[in-house]
Structure formats: structure tokens, C-alpha cells
Write a structure and sequence with these properties.
The protein is an alpha/beta fold. The chain contains 24 helices and ten strands. It folds into four domains: 216 residues, Pyruvate-ferredoxin Oxidoreductase, domain 3; 70 residues; 99 residues, no CATH class; 111 residues, no CATH class. A six-stranded mixed β-sheet has the order 2-3-1-4-5-6, with helices on both faces. α11 packs antiparallel against α12 and α19 runs parallel beside α21.
């Protein structure tokens, strides 16, 4: 650092994260260490409402050596003149980088990788999340050094607040000429939660100081440098030779999910389906100019659809050891505390029919529909299960053990038929035109949620396949692909489906058929009749 200029630090924190406390800590540390310091805050309304920036300047020469002179500090940060920037949220970091605060030849950037979703991200029915990759790329390009890790998760693990973690990251970076003991002393004088704050401080201090070494270690563990492909447990080496490296990360996750969800045979079926897409993509793009993007997307969405949620999977997740540990961590369970967890379920006729053979399931479904048509509510069985009790846990584990029954159920057969139809559309589309197959594969995004949301997504996907993926109404496959992309975007943007219907009609396809909805007649009570009269 230039000994004649202050060291400048920009702190970016969201509301309630202790950015003001962090700034006060740093000022106290500087003055206790014999340095002049000044801080200002700029409250503002950013994309999540309540983001505040704090600006700190510390003169790097002790006051004792200035012979009575006092440095003059500025009140506001100047773009491109920031020595270091620390932020508790990734998108907020990128926002400050986009504002020009970070300079590639000067600024050290320390950021949390955690996200607090914006209002616009939450409103979109589809996956409205901002992609982290461009944000990380911007941080990497606009900083002389950067450290990005999940500060929020680290704070939770240590039982403290994120401001303590941010303080440890600043100390570990060495941006200020303060001893580690000076940082720890100001925490010890902070009052409540001292030990937890010290744990968070130490974890971040070590993380920043050793992040480069840890990154190399992780890369060595995940990459087999001799073969040039990732080595992952549970996946045979033969699959590593069949599938390209670009697909491997998603393939590993999907394969593991199938093993957990069902069994080895189901995982083999997943791989077999994925190989069909790979062969079609190799045929349409033999030079791999597109990087096997279609196969990679299918590895993602196919795994999610094949592992559809049912009562067996819900019971398995609710009774897992990792879930119990997560709940214990969230409530900060102590050694002398008693934890009781009650799970509420309300399975209806469709959930029970899903595990029954198709003829019997059809009878139950017809009975429930007739019940609704007569004006009654759909049948459901409200349950309250004490997961902490032996009986409750055994009940859930018994239900979770019925994976073998899933294959014999009506829903399994229905889901597999729909998956097969979608897969055939992807393969045929890819063989005809790479972009067409890719857009059909991305339609897997329509399958999400459960209940009516899941059913609506499947209906929309099948309608897009029937109306846009086939037929001769388009002059070229490229135009067909554009129409499918537009329909998918419209379906994700509008839950009611009006935008999808308008898009279908605009491309010469039929709108979705109107589904019949039963009319429920409610008999008025005598009191209601008198009031209306």
C-alpha cells in the first residue's frame, strides 16, 4: 500500500447483517492499534431493499510516527480507488463491481457466494434465479485477487452472525496492518456470543489464508490428471469412457440420485436413456462444436423427472438422518435440550392410488372425482406424525421401504410413458436439427413442483410436443426450435397459461384445451338466507 494514502475498504451488507457493527469493530481496532481511521455509511435501496454500504479509510502510518500531523480522509468511496471490498451477498458484490468500485489492478474482493433472491427472481414461476457464473466471472476479471466462499453457511455452522465471519476474512487477507490479536480483542469486548463470534472469525481467517491451497487440493481430488476426467465414487470407469467430460458432472449427480431414489436397475435405465440422446447429438454435431449441451441438459432434467416426488420419497426424506441433523442445527440444539419434531401430512386419493395397480387406481380416482362432482371436497387423510418418537420414525421408515411397490404403481407407469414420449421427441429433434433437440430438452424445466403444479407442467410439455415438435407447419427446423423456445418461456412466465396459449396461437398451433372444473354447490344456512333477504 502507498504509505502516503489511506487504505480504503468498502463494506457491502444487507439489512440486519451487522454491517454497522463490523465497521465499528474495524474503527475500534485501528484506533486501539494506534492508527487514524474514519468511516461513513451510505444507506440505499438496492435490488433486495435495504442494502447499505459502509466506507472505511485507515491511514497506514501510526499516529506516533506522524509527529502531530493528522491525515485528511474522504467521505465517499471513489470508483476505481478501492483497495479492498467485502460483501455478504454475491449479487450485491457484482452490483458494486458493475458500478466500477473494483479495479483489476488494485482491488481485493472478498465475497460470500450465498444469495438472497431479488423480488424479480422470486416472482417468476420458472427458475428465475440469476446465474452465478457471469457474476463470478465479473468478480474475477475486475479484481487483482478474490476470495469467494459461503459466509452465511459458515456463520450458521459457527453459531454466529455473518459480520464476525466478514471480520475474519478481512483479517485473514492482511489488507490492514493490524495483528490478529487486535481483531480478537474487539470481539471479546463485544458482549454476548463472544465464543461463537470467535469461532466464525477464526474459520474465515483460516479460509481466506489457505483458500488457494484448498482449491488445488479439491481439484486434485476431483480430477484424475492422467485420464483427464473427474473421479467420482459410485460411477463405473466404463461410463467415463462412454460419456464426454462436458456431461460428466451432471451424469454423476443424476446417477447417484437414481441409486438413492430406486435401485441399480433404475440407474441403468437413466444411463440407457441418456446414451440415446448422446448418440443423436454426436450424429447431428460430430465435431462437438456445441459442447454436448443437449446431453448435459438432459442429464439434469431427466434425473429430476425420473425421481418424481411421491409419498415413499417424502417419507424417506422426512426420516433421513441428515434431515434430523439439519433441524437440530437450525434450532441450535444443546446437549441438555429436548427436541420434538412433528410432521403434518395430508395424502389424498391420488397419492394412495399412485402406488396401486392401474385398474384399482382407476377405480379410486373415479370415486374421488365423483365425490368432487357431487359438491364434496377431495378425500384426504390428515396425519400428524411425531418424527422424534419411535413409533413415528418406524412408520416413516416403513413407508420409505416401499420402493419396490413404486414400480408396480399406476403413477410409475404413467410417468415412464410421458418420459419416454419426451425422450423420443428430444432424440428425433436432435437428429433432425441440433437446436430443435436442445430446445425440446430444455422443456424439462416445465416439470416441477407437485400436485396440480406438476400436472399442469406435464400437460404443457405434452401439448408443446404434440403441437410444435411435430407436423409440417414450419418452413424450417430452426423456426420450429424458436417456436418451442418461445412457448417454454411463456409457460414459465405465466402460471395461468394465458401467455402460453397466446404464443401457441401466434405460431399456428392450437391453444390448450379447457379442462372441465366441477361446480360446487354450497347450501346456505338459515342465518345466511335471512341476511341476504
Amino acid at each position: 500500500m502507498n504509505q502516503q494514502k489511506p487504505i480504503t475498504l468498502l463494506i457491502c451488507a444487507l439489512g440486519g447483517e451487522g454491517g454497522g457493527v463490523l465497521t465499528e469493530w474495524l474503527v475500534d481496532i485501528a484506533r486501539a492499534s494506534g492508527y487514524a481511521a474514519q468511516s461513513t455509511s451510505i444507506p440505499g435501496v438496492a435490488q433486495r431493499t435495504g442494502a447499505t454500504t459502509y466506507y472505511l479509510e485507515v491511514f497506514p502510518v501510526p499516529l506516533a510516527e506522524l509527529k502531530g500531523k493528522r491525515p485528511v480522509f474522504s467521505l465517499n468511496p471513489v470508483p476505481g480507488a478501492i483497495d479492498a471490498m467485502v460483501s455478504s451477498e454475491l449479487l450485491e458484490t457484482a452490483r458494486q463491481v458493475a458500478s466500477g468500485m473494483s479495479w483489476p489492478l488494485r482491488t481485493l474482493v472478498i465475497s460470500s457466494s450465498s444469495r438472497t433472491f431479488t423480488t424479480a427472481e422470486r416472482m417468476e414461476p420458472g427458475d428465475g434465479r440469476t446465474d452465478n457464473a457471469p457474476l463470478l466471472e465479473a468478480i474475477r476479471n475486475q479484481s487483482r485477487e478474490h476470495h469467494v466462499f459461503d459466509m452465511d453457511e459458515m456463520a450458521k455452522e459457527c453459531g454466529t452472525v455473518v459480520s464476525a465471519v466478514m471480520l475474519g476474512a478481512i483479517a485473514g487477507s492482511g489488507v490492514f496492518p493490524f495483528a490478529r490479536t487486535a481483531y480478537e480483542t474487539v470481539i471479546e469486548h463485544g458482549g454476548k456470543g463472544v465464543q461463537a463470534s470467535l469461532r466464525g472469525f477464526a474459520a474465515a481467517f483460516d479460509r481466506v489464508g489457505t483458500q488457494q491451497a484448498q482449491t488445488r487440493l479439491v481439484e486434485n481430488l476431483l480430477l484424475n490428471k492422467e485420464q483427464g476426467v473427474p473421479v467420482r465414487r459410485g460411477l463405473g470407469a466404463d461410463l467415463a469412457l462412454i460419456f464426454p467430460v462436458q456431461v460428466y458432472d451432471m451424469l454423476v449427480l443424476g446417477h447417484a440420485r437414481m441409486l438413492e431414489y430406486q435401485d441399480q436397475a433404475y440407474a441403468d435405465l437413466y444411463v440407457q436413456r441418456l446414451r440415446q440422446v448422446l448418440q443423436a447429438e454426436q450424429q447431428s454435431d460430430p465435431a462437438a462444436a456445441q459442447g454436448y449441451t443437449t446431453t448435459r441438459e438432459m442429464a439434469r432434467w431427466l434425473a429430476l423427472w425420473m425421481a418424481f416426488d411421491d409419498i415413499v420419497r417424502v417419507a424417506d426424506l422426512k426420516s433421513s438422518a441428515s434431515r434430523w441433523q439439519r433441524v437440530a442445527d437450525e434450532v441450535k440444539l444443546g446437549s441438555d435440550d429436548l427436541l420434538q419434531v412433528y410432521d403434518h401430512f395430508k395424502p389424498g386419493a391420488p397419492e394412495f392410488a399412485a402406488l396401486l395397480p392401474t385398474p384399482l387406481a382407476a377405480r379410486i380416482t373415479r370415486w374421488d372425482r365423483a365425490r368432487v362432482a357431487s359438491g364434496k371436497s377431495p378425500w384426504a387423510l390428515p396425519l400428524k406424525v411425531g418424527t422424534h418418537s419411535v413409533f413415528g420414525m418406524l412408520s416413516l421408515r416403513l413407508l420409505a421401504s416401499l420402493k419396490w411397490l413404486r414400480r408396480r404403481g399406476s403413477r410409475f407407469a404413467t410417468e415412464q410413458a410421458l418420459i419416454t414420449k419426451w425422450l423420443a421427441g428430444v432424440v428425433a429433434g436432435t437428429e433432425a436439427h441440433w437446436q430443435l433437440g436442445h430446445e425440446i430438452a430444455l422443456c424439462g424445466r416445465l416439470i416441477k413442483g407437485y400436485g396440480s403444479t406438476n400436472e399442469r407442467g406435464k400437460d404443457n410439455l405434452m401439448h408443446v410436443l404434440d403441437q410444435l415438435a411435430t407436423g409440417n407447419s414450419f418452413a424450417s427446423n430452426a423456426l420450429r426450435a424458436d417456436a418451442i423456445a418461445a412457448a417454454r418461456t411463456a409457460a414459465l412466465a405465466d402460471e395461468a397459461g394465458k401467455a402460453l396459449d397466446a404464443t401457441l396461437l401466434a405460431h399456428g398451433a392450437a391453444a390448450r384445451p379447457v379442462k372441465a372444473q366441477p361446480i360446487r354447490w354450497v347450501k346456505r344456512t338459515p342465518d345466511q338466507a335471512r341476511r341476504s333477504a
